[in-house]
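Structure ticket #2291
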Amino acid sequence: MKKIKRSIAIIISSIVLIITQNANAQLFKANVSAGFVISQIDGDELYGFKHTGFTGGFGVMMPIIPDKTEEGFQLSTEILFTQRGAKNVYILDPFEYRCDLTYIDIPFMIHYVDKRAGATLGVGLQYGRMIDTKERWKLADTMINGMDRPVNITNHNFKKNDLSFVADFRFNIWRNFKFDVRWQYSLLPIKKDVEFFNSYNSDDDLYRTWKRDFKSQYLSFKIIYVINEEVENYKTKPNKRKTAY
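Resolution: structure written out below.
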């Protein structure tokens, strides 16, 4: 934990130093963000984005071509506090499950800024470091044949590190405020070889077991405030009327 805190402190200090040294040039755009996440875990035999949590943090964006600070391709990174997980809310199934996973997420992305449309598209990779885990299973005393169930509910061996693909779309709202929608999907399992069975007795011909890997998937919705960008930079250019022939 001390190494994680030290690494985060170094990253934060470096970003603040870069912003301070380049504030006049407006080369780096700093931002803060806050919003919510709806998430699920692929592989847990549950379906749907039922788990909700908070996401927020800060980041910077810089142009690939220094002369085009307000449009074109931009590089960005962020440090985000994200609450992911999964939840079973199917009332007809007595199997209860809730998983709360807290991450420090650091995405590295390339964005394309369309100044005229006031919109931005981005893709990239994200490193996530798990800092807290809570997993709660509750199984009914009487199993229902055909209902998928974990074999071992005491296995909490989630991996600490996560590598994900991320893609987002953001658009201008008002002045320096933007709205961002982001999709994330783990490229590597966050938990491996979780064994399930179908609730039949082991001596039944219909009894079977299987193993699944868990992967995280979420949608986040954030409000972003760009700190050091002038308001007029958000205004879109009016379309010029072409001469009729």
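Closing remark: The chain has a mean pLDDT of 80.
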